[in-house]
Amino acid sequence: MANSLLAAALFLAPVLGAPAPAPQVTIPASFGPDSQISASVQPSTTGYRLEVNVNGYTSATYHGPYTGTPTTVGAAPGPTTLGASIPPQPLNPTATYYNTEGVPLNPMPAPFTPFGGLGTNGSLPRYMVNSDFDFESIALGLYQEWIELDLFHDGLARFTDEQFDAAGLGPEARSLIQFMADQETGHSTLLTNMLGERAPKQCVYNYPYTTVREWVDFMQRVTRFGESGTWGFINHLDSREVAQLLSQSIATEARQQLIFRQMSGLTPMNVWFENGWPQSWAWTMLAPYISYCPENTTRLAWQNFPTLRILNNANINRYSPNDTAQDGSETVGPRIVDPSRSNITESCENLNVTGYGCGPAIAHNKSEPLSFPGKKVLFQWEAPGLRVGPNNSYVTSTTAGAPKFVGWSQQLNLTYSPLTVTGNNTGFTYQPKGFVYDSHGIINGTMAIMLTDLDLFVTPFNVSLLNPHIVALGLYQAG
Known about the structure:
Layout: E1 50-52, E2 58-60, H1 132-158, H2 161-166, H3 171-195, E3 204-205, H4 212-231, H5 240-263, H6 279-286, E4 290-292, E5 308-310, E6 376-381, E7 387-388, E8 394-395, E9 405-410, E10 413-418, E11 420-423, E12 426-430, E13 446-452, E14 470-477
């Protein structure tokens, strides 16, 4: 592990009336012990078997597909279901506040405390889920934290120092990834405590990558749906206390996603607003990478949509991403968030040319963007009814009719373009042009894309109303 470096600054006071001498810099030959503070090694509480790799990192003993027979099939049901969908409603009649004065309009309950807010009456906070919606949402979040804990460790143990160095990720970068892996220990502990005794346990996972570049690319995709999948539900939680702690966790996830984009050679930030997704979108993207879970692991109630494959999803490893093959062959596999294939001849990984190189960096500007308005985007989508997720025990489903539109979910918008069907579960559209504010384009970054039977108007707070109209869901690498 990386040593802790202690730097001492020497301040030399110049002699009055004489010029200050040039500083004399001495390079130390050693830096002392790793730590001079007492510490003890604590036992692991992750709940799964570990092995120590020759690299000195820990990882689970097995990553691969599930080969058994599921004993339970389908999402977790409730006692009954009251309707086929939740219909759109008019504006909340109590949402009438509007301040034309620019000063508080109501009596203050205490000095410097404006009237209003939730959880502001002095009652003791209870940091536990407070409804079925809370439980299922935080349980999904815990499934997410568990895979990230395993995923971040796995690459460190799987690949050699030489492979990391060749990918431009030296010891300090590996130390940062190790720290982000350790963050997931805290996140999973927090969510477990807020759920109680039926909190899901860690599972076994099946990953798609074979190189360092593919691993890092996969992590920037996984943290994308982990972050967006939380922004989508956090403000709907009944427990404001749980939402408070969860927001402090997901803020860290956002930083992880940014860093993995930098390590992948992508621009760290290319949107003005991050996008929020319903829980079923995140679960659809997560479930295919869970191989199996321990017996009696708590199941989730969320829907698994069929996979939408973007056949010409830009390969982030190409110096000319518009030369990406049109048949899906430059994605490492058919699963929904599989990374770009890195073993290609026209790679930008070690290309030191401004505008075309894509090695790890603080930022890159692309002379040729990964996507652009008007790009023809090719699709292939699965039929419903496929087994996915832990123990192959969940089933993809849709309640939508025939696909007619492509929904693009990014920033503050959900924008549609018409779908042209060309064959059996194949079709295309053209990437639309639109702006959030001023001249800032809507479509960028790593984002959700879907086929729908209706161009339903939804906004960030009610986007889940679109779920009954989704035919298939995918992940688009726009920038």
